[in-house]
Write a structure and sequence with these properties.
- The structure is a single chain.
- This protein is an alpha/beta fold and 516 residues long.
- Helix content is 39%, strand content 18%.
- The protein has 18 helices and 20 strands.
- The strands form five sheets. Strands 14-15-16-13-12-17-18 form a seven-stranded mixed beta sheet, sandwiched between helices.
- Strand 8, helix 8 and strand 9 form a beta-alpha-beta unit.
- Bound molecules: nicotinamide-adenine-dinucleotide.
- Nicotinamide-adenine-dinucleotide binds next to helix 9 and helix 10.
- The site of nicotinamide-adenine-dinucleotide (NAD) has 31 residues, from helix 9 and helix 10.
Length: 516
């Protein structure tokens, strides 16, 4: 059941109409299921596909942040008091409503960010799936009965943190909002999502839909506004039990330091510089397809992007040729065209940054193979004002080139040749990041050896970029700590409480272990 239909082509006006239709109360904080417009500084939103002004929203003031936190604290108390079966029933309804409105979420995402509709549809469907998956866990959170010496029974129970703040980035707004809210909700926390100020719309819609599906007041609130004001306030408030953060390394460190100063623990999902390693014995067509998907989907604005392509020397030129050929055939353009594969860079500052890193990479000795001129589908239209970068393949990237160690977060892959397995592994591990990577080979032993040796939270063998809410995801090193999916994340969003029960005769109320 969709409220909107896909316009035949993208225009700023069509995008604004979708925004007005799906969020008639505008963009603002969601408190107790209602949209509350911010009263602080105006934050303009630009249509990335055209570069034209799209809408604006306002930062929250301190009083509004306080109101939001008070609502979430009430929500946490009420929600945490329900049993897992009650929470599961409500979350199953949320998943159903999100599934019914997946097309609305996808349209709003595409309209407000410029994300190609086909990608937006995949991500919207996954949000519903996340809620369905964690609804299934809500009534299966178990403690233990732990044997101890003497007349005692000891039990552990899992207790929610209370209010969890989920700070999210602009590259996959609805996806990351679902990713970091479904699990903490399932185990009894209230969640405040703080979306990027550049892309708040779908998070607002998600919270309204969840409320409409029966999630009680205050259980899923949204704090729209700026990171330095609203975000910072949420990371140090004593009413907050835990902060999850998805974003850049530098902001992640700021958030973690601020939260630690207030005694609040964090889960950090940060950037990456993932190595995609192709051995000469690989199926080179599949590897080339994989390399293209690894870096160019979502125009490279993906934390797990395979931004380093390491190819064994014997097949280097052949693989580069195949990747270049495929990259040149990618369809770049209108986000509302279901055939479009590559959209614009979603924010103007990021667009400027991508251009700078391409220039720096070239100045440091890399050679451009693809990625210069925009196609007529863009240049001859209003899309020409948008923030577009063509899929860019650069070769001869040395280990001292900034492209080797800097996360570009755009459709830019730096390639290099290697001569041995050891060299490939050493090079893959040559950055401080450790989010993901892949190995392409027909030798299963080598595949496993390399997958084990590369320091990263996710490794694919003869594949790239599949992630699923059921599988643990997170980083090593600068890519963050903690995990945000899979069954283990239920521990991330609860604390363990130990309960001691004396079972001896009444004459010995404090037997054996009652000393430190
Ligand atoms: P960012 O770090 O600029 O911002 C992320 C969020 O932090 C935004 O909501 C922002 O408003 C907020 N923020 C900024 N300053 C803050 C402060 N002082 N206190 C609290 N919150 C603050 O990141 P971005 O540019 O939005 O996203 C791109 C980055 O996200 C890339 O580095 C990408 O790799 C990373 N990312 C990582 C993953 C992952 O799972 N590892 C997933 C998606 C994106």
């Amino acid at each position: 059941m969709s409220t909107c239909t896909l316009p035949s082509q993208y225009s700023t006006e069509a995008a604004a109409t979708i925004l007005d239709k799906l969020l008639p109360s505008g963009i603002g904080a969601v408190i107790d299921g209602r949209v509350i417009p911010g009263t602080g500084r105006a934050i303009p939103l630009t249509a990335a596909a055209t570069g034209e002004p799209l809408a604006e929203h306002h930062d929250l003031d301190a009083e509004q942040v306080d109101e939001l936190l008070a609502s979430s604290a009430r929500g946490a108390a009420a929600w945490g008091a329900l049993d897992g079966f009650q929470r599961a029933a409500i979350l199953r309804r949320v998943a159903l409503v999100l599934e019914e409105h997946a097309e609305d979420i996808a349209l709003l995402e595409s309209a407000t960010t410029g994300k190609p509709i086909r990608d937006a549809r995949v991500e919207a469907a996954k949000v519903a799936e996340m809620f369905g998956y964690y609804a299934g866990w809500a009534d299966k959170v178990m403690g233990q009965a732990i044997p101890v010496p003497g007349d005692w029974t000891t039990l552990t129970v899992r207790v929610p943190w209370g209010v969890v703040v989920a700070i999210t980035p602009w590259n996959a707004p609805a996806f990351t909002a679902g990713w970091n809210s479904a699990a903490p909700l399932a185990v009894g926390n209230a969640v405040i999502v703080k979306p990027s100020e550049f892309t708040p719309a779908t998070t607002v819609l998600l919270a309204l839909l969840a409320h409409r599906a029966g999630l009680p007041a205050g259980v899923l609130n949204v704090a729209t506004g700026l990171g330095g004001t609203v975000g910072a306030a949420l990371t140090t408030d004593p009413r907050v039990g835990k902060v999850s953060f998805i974003g850049s390394v530098s902001t992640g460190r700021t958030v973690a330091a601020a939260a630690a100063g207030a005694g609040i623990p964090t889960v950090l999902e940060l950037g990456g510089k993932s190595a995609n390693i192709v051995f000469a014995d690989a199926d080179l067509d599949r590897a080339a397809d994989g390399a293209v998907a690894a870096i160019f989907s979502n125009a490279g604005q993906s934390c797990v992007a395979g931004s380093r392509l390491l190819v064994e020397s014997a097949v280097h030129d052949e693989v580069i040729e195949r990747v270049a050929d495929r990259a040149a055939r990618l369809r770049v353009g209108d986000p509302f065209d279901p055939a479009t594969e590559i959209g614009p860079i979603y924010t103007a500052p990021q667009f400027a940054a991508v251009g700078t890193w391409i220039d720096e990479g070239l100045a440091s000795g890399a050679r451009r193979v693809t990625g210069a001129e925009l196609p007529p589908a863009i240049t001859g239209t209003r899309l020409a004002g948008g923030t577009w970068v063509m899929p860019t393949l650069l070769t001869d990237v040395s280990t001292s080139n900034p492209l080797e160690t800097t996360e570009v977060f755009g459709p830019v892959v730096g390639a290099a040749a290697f001569d041995s397995e050891e060299e490939a592994i050493a090079r893959a591990n040559g950055t401080r990041f450790g989010l993901a990577g892949a190995v392409w080979t027909s030798d299963p032993s080598r595949a496993l050896r390399v997958a084990r040796a590369v320091d990263a939270g996710t490794l694919w063998i003869n594949a790239y970029k599949t992630i699923h809410v059921a599988v643990p995801f997170g980083g090593f090193g600068d890519s963050g700590h903690g995990r945000s999916s899979g069954p283990g994340v239920l521990d991330e969003y609860t604390q363990t409480k130990a309960i001691w029960i004396p079972t001896g005769a009444p004459a010995t109320p404090f037997p054996s272990l009652a000393r430190w």
